[in-house]
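hey m, so remember when u said the tokens were messed up on ur end? i reran from scratch. heres the input so u can diff it against urs
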Amino acid sequence: MKCPLCGCQDFFVKDPDDEFETYGFNVASGEAHFSADPRDSRLSNVQETTETFCNRCSWHGKFQELNKT
């Protein structure tokens, strides 16, 4: 999986309770794998409709919109 615009495989999601808190993850394996930071594990259940943001460019959209490689 990768970003539709730049091909990056690093993304983040925003905390639904705090819009300024973000959680980073990588999709190189085809699934969302969060960083080793323990606080990120509470959002480990990324759904197809989860609003996702690219870590490299301005793309954001639903997780299901990521290009599958």
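this time it looks ok to me. The longest strand covers residues 18-26. if urs says something different then somethings off w ur setup not the seq
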